[in-house]
From TrEMBL:
InterPro entries: LysR-type_TF_proteobact-type, LysR_HTH_N, LysR_subst-bd, WH-like_DNA-bd_sf, WH_DNA-bd_sf
One MF term in the entry's GO annotations: DNA-binding transcription factor activity
One Pfam family named in its UniProt record: LysR_substrate
Domain of life: Bacteria
Family: Belongs to the LysR transcriptional regulatory family.
Biological process, per Gene Ontology: DNA-templated transcription
Protein name as annotated: LysR family transcriptional regulator, glycine cleavage system transcriptional activator
Keywords, comma-separated and alphabetical: DNA-binding, Transcription, Transcription regulation
Phylogenetic lineage: Bacteria, Pseudomonadati, Pseudomonadota, Alphaproteobacteria, Rhodobacterales
HTH lysR-type domain segment(s): 6-63
Entry keyword annotation includes Transcription: yes
Keyword Protease: no
Length: 282
């Protein structure tokens, strides 16, 4: 049985890094942190079992494996972009388009969507899954919920709270945090090592790696381990009893979720105000 393909996000990080010969320049282009790009490259190298870059004091150099991979990855990403633009046309005149990650749509918006429809029955919503800058561009959304730093998402975007990182697990999973399987989201700047250092727990080593907070929460809810995620995504699961804190402490993040609204669209402002009110209810 053939092995599953690595995430497209890893290939994006590789292609941008190979083109710029710099993790920093690739991070700026993709709207990510340099650390996140480096982690995704390391994950891809681990998956292939070979180095793709030679790290030098003043930049990067492609290995032979990377030179073979680069043209095929570039061509594949161009085909994906063309296919997306061909099918993802402009939104309909009276349709509100909300662009966000699947994690935000599933864990933050979905639990309360019925309330929004009750308050605004005339508004139809189209959700567009978006993570990367070009995803948001092609979505042409009225509301954008992005992940990153304030500098990356733009000064006009407003932060969504709570943003601190918390450790969550299934109520069926028992044991001390240090003894449980830890789940870490690749692509963020702060992880279990920082959490352990902040709370005197020593070196905490993850056993499971995922590419989104949403997947980390899903695994935690299934009893597979403890997820270190933003409190924004986990609050409703905790309120419903689906997840419980695995440790009383929290950790300040370096990135968070931000919302930007097209103010010329009344429904967009109504959605943003509704979401803000729901989050402030605690």
């Amino acid at each position: 049985m053939p092995r599953s393909l690595p995430p497209v996000a890893w290939f994006r990080a590789f292609e941008a890094s190979a083109r710029h010969l710099s993790f920093t320049a690739a991070a700026d282009e993709l709207g990510m942190t340099q650390s996140a790009v480096s982690q995704q490259i390391k994950a891809l190298e681990t998956r292939f079992g070979t180095e793709l870059f030679t790290r030098k004091p003043r930049g990067l150099a492609l290995t032979d494996a990377a030179r073979k991979l680069m043209p095929q990855v570039g061509s594949a990403l161009e085909m994906l972009q063309a296919a997306t633009l061909a099918l993802d046309g402009p939104p309909e005149a009276e349709l509100l388009t909300v662009a966000s990650s699947v994690s935000v749509a599933s864990w933050v918006i979905a639990p309360h969507l019925r309330d929004f429809h009750r308050r605004h029955p005339q508004v139809r919503i189209r959700f567009a899954s978006a993570i990367w800058p070009d995803d948001f561009q092609s979505a042409m959304a009225d509301v954008e919920i992005r992940f990153g730093s304030q500098r990356q998402v733009g000064q006009s975007a407003l932060p969504l709270e709570p943003s601190e990182l918390v450790a969550l697990k299934s109520p069926m999973l028992e044991g001390k945090l240090e003894d449980l399987p830890l789940i870490e989201s690749v692509g963020t700047s702060v992880g279990w090592d920082a959490f352990g250092a902040a709370h005197g727990l020593g070196a905490l080593r993850p056993r499971l790696y995922v590419d989104s907070y949403g997947m980390a929460l899903q695994l935690a809810a299934g009893g597979s381990g403890v997820a270190l995620v933003t409190a924004l995504l986990g609050r409703d699961a905790v309120a419903s009893g689906q997840l419980v804190p695995a440790h009383p402490g929290s950790l300040a993040p370096r990135e968070g979720y931000y919302i930007a609204v097209r103010d010329t669209v009344p429904a967009a402002r109504a959605f943003a105000d509704w979401l803000d009110a729901r989050l402030k209810q605690g």
